[in-house]
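Write out a record, fold above all:
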Amino acid sequence: SSTVKETPVRRTLRLLATTALATGLVVGASGTAFAQKTTVKDASGDVLRYADDEGASDGVALEDTESRASGADIKSFSVDHTKTRVKVSAKFRTVEDDTTIYVYFRLNGKSEPTRVLFNLDDEDAVVFQLSTGEVACELPISVKTGPNGTISASINRKCLGYPSKLRATVVADTETVDGSGDYYEDFLGNDDWQWTKSLKRG
C-alpha cells in the first residue's frame, strides 16, 4: 500500500475540542468562478489510517472495503452561501457515532483557512478562529449515522465575520474499531486538499 504524510489536522483540533468541551496549513485552490452554492464529489476508497502517537507518522492508504466501512469515507461536500447563513453538508459511505467532521473556511480571498467548524457530538458543533483558538460561535448540527450517513450545519454569517466570499473544504476522521487507538482520516481531494470554488453570498 502507498503512504501519505500526515496532515496536522487531528492533533491540532483535538486540543481545540478539549478546550471547547471544557468551557499553518496552505493548500491549492480549485476553480475561480463565482457562485452561491456548489457540491464537490470525492473519490471512493481514499481513506488513510494513522497511528495514534505523539510523533509524525505516515498515513497508510486503505483497501477499498475497509475504506468504505471506516466511517470517514466522504462521498460529497456541499456549501450554500446565502444572505444570512452558510449551510454546509457532507455525505458519507458510512458515518460512525464518533465520526468528526472539520469544515475549513478561507474567507475573502485569503490563501489560508482562518476558521473551522467541527462537531462535538451528534447535536452540537463549534466554529473556532484558528489564529487565536477562540470559539467564534456554538451551533447545532445534524448527524445521520449508518450507511449513507450525512452531517449538516447552518452557520450564521456573523460567526464567520460576514465574509463577502469564501471557499471551504472538509476533513473527516474516526477511531479504528480494533482498540489500537489508531484513526482513519479522509479529506476532500487526493494528494492535495481540494477547495470549493469561491462563493459569494446569494
Observations:
- The CA atoms of residues 175 and 183 lie 4 Å apart.
- The chain is about 10% helix and 45% strand.
- Confidence is low (pLDDT under 50) at residues 1-8, 17-32.
- The two ends are 44 Å apart (CA to CA).
